[in-house]
Every structure is written in structure tokens, then in C-alpha cells.
């Protein structure tokens, strides 16, 4: 007798095709021991009827399961669970329900959980007006060509090479095209030995901090500053000095007399978007040469520079090799990719490579190769050009709407970027404003997390336009204006 | 006048299609400023003639470049560099040739470069007899279905979700199928809150060591031991005690009275392959409960257990939650994938997640989703079954050849694995033996890197059969036997 079709149930699942859902059902039934080797499967007709799907769907699923050796086909008499079907071993196991023997508060030697308030809800896509920063916008990304590049990278020829453990190395093709096509956009020339691929800019900053900083060293950061960097520095337990930025970014003359590392975002200061003028860049490098400190240039968003020509990177002006340059594909491609890179002097890159290898070996080869194809075929440069056009349009709509609603911008002199740094009227706390706006479907990012202390004006907030369609911008800004007017009453 | 076709050259490159090579040529020429906006491209006929390719190949490349906005088509008059073609900014740059201003020996705060001898040449695939451990074998891997799963993951529907920054989260689909399809194979039941996806087992061990160990804590490791773990512990500066293993793995009665963490490989001890009997597993857990220490179970190769049924994982016997379980896809899928996982009590996983997020956010979503499909459609279990069959065959050929050549095995009682732990006759140094065998196209892995001190017998070596075809084994083993006999003369 065959296994009754009625023991199989489809779970509503829109992500997976019917055929694959049926495969999953059968695999699960065999692996769990519910269907045993030698048992006959329900006929494709019966199972199709029971599940309410086309018979061919079941037949294809069964055929696939035969090729995977879960089932065997015995011609007219139908499909059977294979005698050698994959199975799970059986054990007699202790009851794990009272799993409370360890005092974890004593056992944990180092703590990493920080209580950073969550500024972005996980379901930000469900909001109608997501003025949210740093996420991807499927409308902007050249998914079609990315998919083609991924296909190429996962093809047989590349796969056999990419499947192996690279130990500490990188995909030479990705390194080559970063050197040939990305770094020249920033005026940087480098050799392959001077570059390390990382799992995004966060990873690049983390590696850099581990190598340069100890409890006895001093780091300077900008205020306000990317909160992820502040977390990294806290964990190194170095002495951290925050310096207030102005409309031209970090003022070099305010640097302390003794320091080891400066972290800066000269292209677009994070989060104010201020661009550091070339004169300041030269001054910073002079001070670095005199004071023998290192400058970490986080060029996280250089591609998005469309208002004027971008300034050359600090790294390109650096005759002594004191600049460690951090780049990322998160803004130009997409953040879930987790790819970035460090460009620095060879002795530094060697250490960084050793640390990366200790922690995780290397970023997955298939991802590196996909990005390499995307670069080599010109899709990356085309993507940057397209993004620039769309961001320029969105930005001008943002400016007009902000002006109509009389909201206050706080920075001048920006070269582009994908956001505005705003200031609510006195007395308004942007965290409360943000929570209240969520009810209207509007997401803004409160500014408090960017500041070194809690004593700053709580009115700052960031409005990004990288994930919101142009047509939605005026209504979204109008809702923010309305909420602020209500709050002032 | 059109740009002369003669200024374009194909570089011999078997990895990339002709059409894509032509695209690259043109992109490079435009980005470098060699072809300027408004200039006319050579006709497809002329360029095809010059490059020696079919005209349609050039036409398709041009069409692709039009859609990427590098070129525009003006009907009969041909293709022109677009006025708005992507371009690179130009800078006046200082001379970077004397890039020697920084004294890196003083600037580096922490050093990570260890001088571990390279045991495996990068070009190991070019060797005829690669008895090399832990690399992938394209003959064993179900590349066809992996590719299909990758295609599905990079499809539009999944892509839009996977492209976003997950912050500290994982792909819920991968977590679900690890819980449903992998952990039951080890007798482990767990909740989604008790699992963290990592960039491979190395990353999992690194995270675990960071959280549990400080300079004031004591870790116990096996001797011999996976060298990557010893490097991780060195970097934490904890007190590390190495305990010699025997034919049944780590002997619990030799543990010191006071310790904080034990790292062990009970399924197949690394590198001897000894399997820890269930009685020892229970004893180890009793001691852990009494001594309030944590056991880190590195189950790096459990899938490759084909001689007897696998023993249940330590984690499955653990009523108090003192076991931190580390799994990896490197052996069952392929090492370049860089995917593994930690299963442990929720307070530990929360810290591990925070640390992972600080260092790199999360493993790339596309990779996680591809693996999830591979699991969900039953390919993973089918793959394990297939590998078991082939490894069993290779192992028996290995055993026969080893016996015929009278080479010495050192461990009994193994349940499978993908290698043998060998011992050369007294007086033979396996490092020299390995270097000498390379000339014959034979790769073996010398044992010295696995030991805590240099005082061990230098005759140990590892012979793996995960990357060598069955038909090559007898000749390879015979060459090893011959070399050893020569060395003894």
C-alpha cells in the first residue's frame, strides 16, 4: 500500500515554487523517518489531486527526488522511497528542557552587547516614506546585469577555482578591477600588495582599529560621527577624543598635540555631508607628517558626488603613505553584499591580511568574482552614472520640499551624498519626533546616536533620499513639517 | 573619422567570453580617456576583422555598451562614445613613488602576522597526487543544483530582500533549515535564538574565544590540535594548556583542576581522526558541570562519518547548556563558501551576535539564501550520502595501498573522516619528506604544525583523500613508500 497522499500538506509559502515545496515535503518526510525505505509514494495523480496542483508539478518533483536518490522509480508501479535514501541517525537523548546549568553572567569573559537604540525598524520597506539611510533601492540597482555576473561566477569554469579555501588571499580579478576602475576615480594609484578586500567598510574600520590602537594609544574622531566607529573604538579601549566638525568637516587646527590615529570622512562628512576643502586636506596631511600619526580616510560614499566634481581622495594627496583608505560597495552596489576594501602601505596590509585570515579567512570567492565581473564589464561605472542622475533629481525635489515646509538644513557646501542633516526647532527632541512620525508611515533618523555625549542639541536628524521614490518625497516632507508644527503648538 | 580599430587589442583570456572581452576593452578605453565623448567607434565589421572575431560578437558587445550608456547608436552612421558616458575624474596628483614616510614598525599597535610555514602550495591542483586536506573536490560536489539554488537566490524576488543590510540578523530560511535538517543529524534540538551563522568554523572559533577568554582565563586544547585554533588562543593571551590525546581522543581525567574552556573535536579528533567514545563524552560533561567550565565542540567534519553510525554530538548529551557547538559547511559543501554556525545557549549567542555585528555585520545574504535552498530541496542530504559512498571507496583503496607499502597508521577506532594520521619511520622528518615528494607531484601534509611544542616526533604526517581521485591513490602512495625507503638507506 502506498503512503497516503493525505499525510502531505503544503504550507502557504509564496517564496518557493510548488514543485520545490513538494520536494521539501517529501525530503522532510523521509529524513524525519515518517516515510521509510521501500515504502511506495502516493501516485503523482493522487498527490496532485490532494494538494490541488497540476500532475506534471508532482511528476517533476518526483523526478528530481529520484536523481537525488530519495526515491526510485519502478516504472508503472510508481515511486518508492529508496533503500539508500539519505537519512538521519537516531539517538537516545537527554531531556534538554531544563537547560539552565550555566551561569552565563560569570562565564562570559568579554561583553559586546551595547545598548544602542534601534534607529531603523526591520520592516522599513513597509513604510510609505522611508527617509532611511544606507539601504538599497531596487529601483536604482542594475539587478539584471548583477544576476548575469553572478551566473557567470557560479558557472563551472569559475566555480572550481572559487570553491577552494583561499586562505589569506583575495580574488585577483576583483583586486585588478578595483585598481583599474575604482581607485583612478579617486586619483589613487596602488599596487595589488597595497589592497585588502573586506566584508564591507565596518569590517575595514574594525581591522584598522585592531591593528593601530591599544589601551595606550589615542584616536581622534569627528563629532558627530558614524556610531559604528565609536563602538569599534570603545571595544579597543583606546583613548578617544571627539572633535566638533564645522561646515568644512574636521578642522585640523583643533587636533591635539599628541595622537596616533585620526578617523575622518572628508568626501562627505558622516552625518553632516560637509566636504573637506582641498586646503584642509593638505593641512591635515602636513600635520600627520609632522606629528607622525596615521589618517584613516573613510570614503564610504564617494561615488555619490554629483553636485561638483569630487575632490581627490586624501590618499591621492599623500606622499608619505600615512593615509589608510577605506572604500565600500555598500552604497554603490548594495549593503547586503558586504564587500569593501582597504588601500594602504604594504606593511599595514600584510598585518590586516593576517588578522582577517585569523578571524574569517577571506570574503567568499563567489561574491568577489561576481563583483569583479560587474566592474570589468562596465556595469559599475554605468550604475554610478545612473545613480548620480536619479539622486540629483531626488535631491532637488528634497530641497524644494524642505524649503516649502521651512525645515532647517544645517550644512552648506556639500558635494552630493544621499542625505540631508537637519535641525528641528528648539525644544523638539528628534527621537520623539521620529517615533511619532512612524505612525504616519514616515521614517527619519534621529541624530543623537551620532554625538559623543548626551549634551548635544537633541533636535538634529538625518533625512536620506537613497531609498525613497521621487514622487513620494513632497508628501513625506510635508508630513514631517506638519508634525513639527503640531509639536510646537 | 572613426577611432582606429587597430588601437584595440584582445588579451588572451580563456575565462571571459569574446563578447565580454570586447566590452571590457571599450569600457577601459572610455574610462581612461583614450576614447572621448562624441568620437566614432570603429565599425563592427572593421573591429571584428581586426580582432579576428565574428561580426555579431562585436555587434552584441556594442549593443550592450549602448544599454549601459557608454555608446550611442546613430543608425547607419554607426556607434559613438556617448556624451554622458561614465568617466573618471581627473586630478593633479603628487608623486607617490617615494611612499616611505611612515615607520610602520612603530605605528602598528598590535601584530597578527605569525610565521606559520605554508603547508599547502597555492597551486595544489596542479599536483598529480594531492593528498591534501580540507579542499574541495569538484568531482564530488553537486555543482548543477548549487548553481540552480544560486540562480534562485539572485532572482528578483529574493534579491530585493537579500540586498539590504541585515544589521545583526541572519537569513531566517537558512536558520530554519539548519534547525530542521542538519542539527537533527547530530541529535541536537535548538531554537532559532540559539544559533548564529558565521563565516566558517574558523570564524565561529574566533568569536567563541573572544567572548570566553581573557588574559586571566585558562583554555584547554588537544595535542595535536588544529593550528588555526592555537593561533586564535595565542591572540587572546589566555593561559593555554595542551593535553595529549590518545586513541579515544581527549582523556577527561587529564584535565586540570581549574579551567574555563575546553576545545575538543570529539567526532573525529583533528588531526588523528580518533572518535571519542560515548562514555568519555558523558564523563567530560559531568566534569564540566562540576567544574563549571564550558566545552566548545568543534564538529567540523561530522558529515563524513561512514564507517559506523556517528556518535551523538556532545551538545545533544548536554543537559546544562555548557556545550558550545561549532559546525561548518566547508567539508560538506565547499570551503570557499565560508559558512558555518554556532549553536549555544541564548545569552552566549546574543553576545556572539553583537560581536559579529561589530566586526562585519553579517555573512552575505545571497550566500546564506543559496545554502538555504540547497538544504531545503534535499540536495545537502543527497550530497552527504554521495560523499559517504565515494569516501568509503577511496578509504579502502587508501588502506590497501598503505598496507602494501607498509606505511604506518597511528590511530585506530576512527569512524570515518577524510584523512589518515601517519607516522614515518624514526629518523625521517616529515617536513623534509613533504618537500621532497613535491618533486614527484605528491602533496602530503607534515604534522609538526599541529603540535604544541617542537619536541614532538617530527615523523607525523597527514594523508587526506578528499581531493584525490581513487584511480590516482595507489601510484601516489607508492611514491611516498619509495621516497621513505630511499630516505632510510
Q: What is the fold's blueprint, element by element?
A:
The structure is a homodimer of 489-residue chains.
Chain A (H helix, E strand, L loop, with lengths): L17 H14 L12 H8 L3 H13 L3 E3 L5 E3 L22 H4 L21 E2 L12 H11 L2 H7 L9 H11 L12 E4 L2 H12 L5 E6 L3 H10 L2 E6 L16 E4 L13 H14 L2 E5 L24 E6 L11 E4 L2 H15 L4 H12 L2 H26 L3 E2 L9 E5 L6 H9 L3 E2 L1 E2 L13 E5 L8 H16 L1
Parallel strand pairs in A: 3-13, 5-6, 5-7, 7-8, 8-9
Antiparallel strand pairs in A: 1-2, 4-10, 9-10, 11-12, 12-15, 14-15
Helix pairs in contact in A: 1-3, 2-3, 5-12, 7-12, 8-9, 13-15
Tell me the number of helical segments of chain A per DSSP (H or I, 4 or more residues long): 15
Biggest sheet: strand arrangement of chain A:
4-10-9-8-7-5-6
What structural category do the secondary elements of chain A indicate?
A: alpha/beta
Count of domain modules of chain A? 3
General shape of chain A: globular
Strand content of chain A: 5-15%
Low-pLDDT segments, ≥5 res of chain A: none
Oligomer: homodimer
Order of helices and strands of chain A: HHHEEHEHHHEHEHEEHEEEHHHEEHEEEH
Mean pLDDT of chain A: 88
* Radius of gyration of chain A, in angstroms, nearest whole number: 28 Å
**CATH fold-level name of the largest domain in chain A:** Aspartate Aminotransferase, domain 2
The total count of strands of chain A amounts to: 15
Pair with the most extensive interface? A-B, 139 and 139 residues
Tell me the name of the CATH homologous superfamily of the largest domain in chain A. Type I PLP-dependent aspartate aminotransferase-like (Major domain)
Largest sheet of chain A: 7 strands, mixed
Distance N to C terminus of chain A: 77 Å
Q: Residue share in helices of chain A?
A: 25-40%
In the CATH scheme, the class of the largest domain in chain A would be: Alpha Beta
Query: From the coordinates shown, what is the CATH architecture of the largest domain in chain A?
Result: 3-Layer(aba) Sandwich
Amino acid at each position: 500500500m502506498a503512503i497516503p497522499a493525505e499525510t502531505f500538506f503544503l504550507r502557504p509559502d509564496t517564496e518557493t515554487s510548488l514543485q520545490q515545496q513538494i520536494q521539501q515535503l517529501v525530503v522532510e518526510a523521509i529524513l524525519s523517518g515518517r516515510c521509510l525505505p521501500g515504502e511506495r509514494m502516493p501516485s503523482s495523480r493522487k498527490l496532485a489531486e490532494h494538494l490541488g496542483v497540476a500532475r506534471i508539478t508532482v511528476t517533476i518533483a518526483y523526478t528530481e527526488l529520484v536523481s537525488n536518490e530519495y526515491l526510485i522509480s519502478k516504472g508503472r508501479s510508481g515511486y518508492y522511497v529508496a533503500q539508500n535514501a539519505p537519512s538521519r541517525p537516531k539517538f537516545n537523548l537527554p531531556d534538554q528542557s531544563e537547560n539552565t546549568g550555566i551561569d552565563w553572567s560569570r562565564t562570559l569573559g568579554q561583553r559586546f552587547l551595547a545598548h544602542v537604540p534601534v534607529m531603523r525598524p526591520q520592516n522599513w520597506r513597509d513604510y510609505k516614506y522611508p527617509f532611511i539611510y544606507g539601504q538599497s533601492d531596487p529601483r536604482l540597482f542594475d539587478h539584471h546585469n548583477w544576476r548575469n555576473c553572478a551566473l557567470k561566477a557560479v558557472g563551472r569554469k569559475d566555480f572550481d577555482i572559487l570553491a577552494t579555501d583561499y586562505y589569506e588571499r583575495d580574488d585577483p580579478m576583483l583586486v585588478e578591477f578595483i585598481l583599474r576602475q575604482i581607485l583612478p576615480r579617486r586619483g589613487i594609484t596602488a599596487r595589488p600588495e597595497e589592497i585588502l578586500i573586506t566584508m564591507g567598510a565596518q569590517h575595514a574600520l574594525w581591522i584598522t582599529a585592531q591593528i593601530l590602537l591599544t589601551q595606550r594609544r589615542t584616536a581622534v574622531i569627528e563629532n558627530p560621527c558614524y556610531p559604528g566607529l565609536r563602538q569599534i573604538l570603545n571595544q579597543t579601549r583606546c583613548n578617544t577624543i571627539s572633535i566638533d566638525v564645522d561646515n568644512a568637516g574636521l578642522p585640523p587646527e583643533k587636533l591635539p598635540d599628541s595622537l596616533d590615529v585620526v578617523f575622518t570622512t572628508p568626501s562627505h562628512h558622516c552625518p553632516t555631508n560637509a566636504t573637506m576643502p582641498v586646503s584642509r586636506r593638505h593641512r591635515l596631511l602636513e600635520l600627520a607628517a609632522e606629528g607622525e600619526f596615521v589618517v584613516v580616510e573613510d570614503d564610504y560614499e564617494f561615488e555619490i558626488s554629483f553636485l561638483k566634481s569630487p575632490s581627490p581622495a586624501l590618499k591621492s594627496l599623500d606622499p608619505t603613505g600615512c593615509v589608510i583608505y577605506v572604500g565600500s560597495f555598500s552604497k554603490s552596489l548594495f549593503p547586503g553584499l558586504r564587500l569593501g576594501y582597504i588601500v594602504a602601505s604594504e606593511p599595514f596590509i600584510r598585518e590586516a591580511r593576517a588578522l582577517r585570515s585569523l578571524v574569517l579567512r577571506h570574503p567568499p570567492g563567489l561574491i568577489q568574482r561576481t563583483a569583479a565581473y560587474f566592474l570589468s564589464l562596465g556595469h559599475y561605472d554605468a550604475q554610478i552614472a545612473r545613480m548620480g542622475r536619479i539622486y540629483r533629481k531626488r535631491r532637488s525635489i528634497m530641497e524644494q520640499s524642505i524649503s516649502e515646509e521651512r525645515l532647517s538644513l544645517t550644512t552648506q557646501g556639500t558635494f552630493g551624498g544621499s542625505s540631508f542633516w537637519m535641525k528641528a526647532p528648539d525644544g523638539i527632541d528628534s527621537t520623539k519626533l521620529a517615533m511619532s512620525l512612524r505612525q504616519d508611515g514616515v521614517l527619519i533618523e534621529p541624530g543623537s546616536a551620532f554625538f559623543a555625549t548626551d549634551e548635544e542639541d537633541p533636535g538634529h536628524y538625518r533625512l536620506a533620499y537613497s531609498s525613497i521614490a521621487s514622487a513620494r518625497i513632497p508628501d513625506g516632507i510635508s508630513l514631517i513639517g506638519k508634525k513639527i508644527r503640531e509639536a510646537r503648538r
